[in-house]
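Hi R.,

Here's the chain you asked about this morning:
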Amino acid sequence: MTPFTETFTSRPVRLELEDVVLNGDLAVPLSARGLVLFAHGSGSSRHSPRNRAVADVLHRGLFGTLLLDLLTQQEEIADALTAEFRFDIELLADRLVGAIDWVRAHPQTSALPVGLFGASTGAAAALFAAARRPNVIRAVVSRGGRPDLAEDSFDHVRAATLLIVGGNDDVVIELNKQALALLPEPKELQIVPGATHLFEEPGALDRVAELATSWFARYLHP
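And the predicted structure, written out as tokens:
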């Protein structure tokens, strides 16, 4: 991996989309070779320590990142009580598509090839968004994701898709295997031995970050 010796800018951004304003954190190395948008999963946000750990490794690989809150503060409060938004894949995908369009128009990121990193239900939103922007999204990585919830979009996905699942996450492994059989090529399933759904075991998240960075290095290129 490229040694992380290059300066990069990191700042909060507000994405003014058609019907909502989303908060995000944008970090772009000066010689960035791509940009990865993060779609968080159930009960998470742009402050997710797991996603930030992966983003840090991507920065060392000279990839920019945009970590997003796909829900507003009021929606996050409601979702914590009712879980009404976390499985609204259409809503999450709509907002992720809006973020994709935002980075394509933003001067700092408009020239960069774009990939998506989705966790849990955010992985389904990422695949739906990739299907709706097939000429923009070149690669998708799912961490402990539910790609099966996006099955209706698979025929339109053109991005290279990597599914990463913990070896002890039996139910999600099976769901990912079923999705893998239906996804178009290029595709791959990587199972991290000994890891559970949140990859909290020592070294598990490091392996996720390594796999994701290698995947984006392979498929995010001009």
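The chain has one domain: 8-219.

Let me know if you need anything else.
M.
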